[in-house]
Amino acid sequence: MKKKVTAIVQARVGSSRLRGKVLKKINGKETIVLLLDRLSKSKKLENIIVAIPQKEEDDLLFKVLKKNNYNVFRGDELDVLKRYYDCAKKNNIQNILRITGDCPLVDPTLVDNLINVYQKKNVDYLSNIEERSYPDGMDIEIFSMKALSQANSSVVLFSDKEHVTNYFLRSDIFKKYNYLKNGKNFSNLRVTLDTKNDFKLIKIIFKNFKNIFFKFDDIIKFYTKNKNLFHQNVKFHDKEKLSKMITGQKIWNRAKKSISGGNMLFSKRPDVFLPDYWPSYFKEAKGCLVTDLDNKKYYDVSIMGIGTNILGYANNQVDKAVISRIKKSNMSTLNCVEEVYLAEKLIKLHPWADQVRFARTGGEANSISIRIARAYSKKSKIAFCGYHGWHDWYLATNLKTKNNLNGHLLPGLQTAGVPKNLSGTIFPFKYNDFEELKELLNKNSDIGIIKMEVVRNEMPKNNFLKKVRKIANERNIVLIFDECTSGFRQCFGGIHKIFGIEPDILMLGKALGNGYAITAVLGREKIMNSIKKTFISSTFWTESSGPTAALKTLEIMEKTKSWKQITKTGQFVKSEWKKLALKYNLKIKINGIPALSSFVFQSNNHQAYKTFITQEMLKKGFLATTTIYISVSHTRKILDKYFFHLEKMFKIISKCEKGDDIYKYIETKNSTTDFARLN
C-alpha cells in the first residue's frame, strides 16, 4: 500500500520581514490562495491543511482561507513544530508534506515527483533542500508522523521549534533522502516571498502567464529570457560575500555522501559555524593562522582544533621532535621508551598519583578510567557532572530520561545502539549543586564512582569540590576528575591543583600533545592495579609520536609558562567582550575559565546573532564564533583587529534588539547548536 501524504502549509500574518505577505494580492488573489490553488493541482496529495497561529491578528487569514474553502488548523504561534504535530495528530495524518506560506510558486508537478520517490523509498524524511539544485521558494519536505513525533518530543531549542525541520536536518537518527532531479543547479535563484523585492518579482512572474498553473520549467524559461528582472533575487557571492568558500563547501557536500555524518567530530561540522559558507577544510595551519583549500588565510579566534593547540598550530619544536622520532620509526614490535619518560614526568607533576595509562583520545581515556574505577569499586553505577565523551556508559544517561544530557552535552541526543540494560546505571548532577549529588548518593548506595569536570562554565562555589572529595572519602567512592579540556590552561597540570583537591583518577588530553594524539589516565596505585583484573589494551596506544609530542610540549610549556600567558590573554578577551556589551546595552553571559571562554546573548535571537558574527568575521579574515580557546599565538595585535571588527557587529545586534531584523543581515540559514559546554 502506497503511503498517503497530506500537505500542511504553515502561514501567518505577522511575518517580521514582510508583514502580511500571505495576504498581499496578485491579480485579485491573496498569495496564500495562489499557493493553495496551485498546490491543489497535485495528483498525489490526499489533503491540504493550512496551519496558522491561534492569534487575533491571524483571524483575517482564517476568514480568507475559509472563504476559499481550505481546511484550517489553528495552533501554537511560536512553537511551529508543535503546531505541525498537533495538526497531524488531530487529523490522523501519517505522512506530512511541508510547505511554507512564502512559497506561492511551488510546483504541484514537483510535489508529485517527490511524493512518488517518498512512497518508494523507506525513509523518514525526504526533501529537495539538503543539497540544493532548486531555487529558494521551491522548498518541499516530506516526513513521517513517527519522525515528527520524535522531533516534537526531543527538541528543546527555540530555533528547532520555530523552524520545524532543523532537528531532521542535523540528526543522524533518521533515514533521509535528498531529491536532486534538476539538470542544472538553480540554487542561486530566489523565488520565495520574504521582501518587497521578492513580491515585485513574483507579481511579474504571475502576470507573465495566462493562468496561474505554470510549472517550474516555465519559470526557468522566463528567467533565461529575463535575467535582468531577477538580478536582485540572485544570490551573488562576490569577494565581499565569501565567494572563495566554494571548494571547501563542495568537498563537504561530497563528504556527506561518503562519510557517515560528514566527518568524525560534531564540533567541526560546518553547519555548527556557518552553513553554506564555512571553509570546512584546511590546507595549512601555523600559529593561529589557518589556510583553506582556496589559499585564503584566516586568524583562528574560535576553537583552535577543539583546544588541542595551546602552543599554536605546527609548533616548530614539537613538530621537529615528532619528525625526528618518526624518521626512526613510529611503531615497532618493541615498546617506545618515550611513554616511560612521559609517565614519570606526569607523576612528578602530580605527586598524589602513582601510575599512568596512555591512550589517544579523550573518549578512550574516559572509558579507561571508568573500567578501572568499576574494577576497583566493584560497583557499576556512576554519578557524573559535565561532558565525558560518546561511549555507551555515558550516553546511557538518556536511556531513562531522554533529556538528562541536555545540560552536559547538547540537546536531543539519541541512544540508538546503547544497550538498554545500562538504563538506571548513570546519574547526572549539576555543577555546584552538592545537595543534588548527596541526594543521589543517599538514594543509590551502589554508586561507586563520581566523575566530573573540575570546572565547567563557572567556578566552584561554597567549597563544592572540597565537599565532593569529602563525601567520596566517607563512602569509599572513586573520584575521577576529567581534565581533558581544562588541563594545562590555568596551571601546569590540571586545574584541580589550583583548588588543592586531589582526585583518585585524573584524565589529561587535548593540549597535552599540542595537536598530536595523546591522552593520559593517572591514578593512585591501589586503584590503578585493578587493571590486572580486567582487559585494557590497544595497538595504536603504543606508537611513539604522541608521547614524543607530549614530552616536548610539556618542556615548552614549563619553560615559557604558557598557562600564565593564555590566562592573561583570556582575561583581556573576557573584559573586552564585557566592555562591548556595556557600550551597546546588550545582555550577554560570559562563561568559562579565561583560556577557554565563551559568551551568549541573552536574547531569543542568540543563535542568529552568533551566525551573524561568524558570517561577518569570516569576511574580515577571522574564524570566529562566540567561543575562543586561547593559545600563545593569539597576540594583542591580532585580538585588537578582532575586537575592531566585532564592535561593528555588536552595534548592529544592538539595533536588532531594538526592533531591527537580524535576518536581513544573514546570508544563509542559522548555524546549528553546538555543545552545551561551549555555550
List the helices and strands and how they pair.
Blueprint: E1 5-10, E2 25-26, E3 29-30, H1 31-39, E4 45-53, H2 59-67, E5 71-75, H3 80-90, E6 95-100, H4 108-120, E7 125-127, E8 141-144, H5 145-154, H6 158-163, H7 166-170, E9 176-178, H8 196-208, H9 216-225, H10 246-258, H11 270-273, E10 282-286, E11 289-292, E12 297-301, H12 304-307, H13 316-327, H14 338-349, E13 355-359, H15 362-377, E14 381-385, H16 392-395, H17 397-400, E15 426-428, H18 434-443, E16 447-452, H19 464-474, E17 478-483, H20 496-499, E18 505-508, E19 519-523, H21 525-528, H22 545-560, H23 562-583, E20 588-591, E21 596-601, H24 606-619, E22 622-624, E23 627-629, H25 636-657
Parallel strand pairs: 1-4, 1-6, 4-5, 7-9, 12-22, 14-15, 14-16, 16-17, 17-18
Antiparallel strand pairs: 2-3, 6-8, 7-8, 10-11, 11-12, 13-19, 18-19, 20-21, 21-23
* Low-pLDDT segments: 235-245
Helix/sheet category: alpha/beta
Give the termini distance in whole angstroms.
47 Å
Give the C-level CATH assignment of the largest domain: Alpha Beta
Radius of gyration: 28 Å
The proportion of residues forming helix, as a percent range, comes to 25-40%
* Coarse shape: globular
Oligomer: single chain
Number of strands: 23
Counted up, domains total 3
CATH fold category name of the largest domain: Spore Coat Polysaccharide Biosynthesis Protein SpsA, Chain A
The CATH superfamily name of the largest domain is Spore Coat Polysaccharide Biosynthesis Protein SpsA, Chain A
Q: How many distinct helices?
A: 25
The CATH architecture of the largest domain can be named as: Alpha-Beta Complex
**Biggest sheet, spatial arrangement of strands:** 5-4-1-6-8-7-9
